[in-house]
Amino acid sequence: MLAAPRLVVAAIAGGATGVLVFSLTGAGLTATPSPGSIIALLAVTPKGGYVGVVGGVVAAACVSFLFAALLLKFGRGNDSAIEQGGAVRRAASHRAR
Residue 4, SS3? Predict the structure, then answer.
C-alpha cells in the first residue's frame, strides 16, 4: 500500500508535461534510454536536440514537484498515515525485543 497514493497524480502530471514539451520542441532520441538514467537519456540525444530534451526533463520535474507539494499541503491535516505507520513500526520493534 502506498503511503500517499495521491502523489501518483503528480507523477502523471509531470510525465504529461514532459511529453508536451518534447512534442512542442520536436525533441527526440536516437534509441531507447535506460529507465531512470539522465546520463543514458543524454547519451542517446541527437546533436542539436539537447535543448528540447533537457527542457522537457526540467519541465516535467518542476511540474511533478509543484503538484506533489500542493497535494501534500492540501492533505496535511487530513492524512496522518505516515505518522501512524511510524508509530506502528516503533511499537512492533519494541514488542519484538
Answer: coil
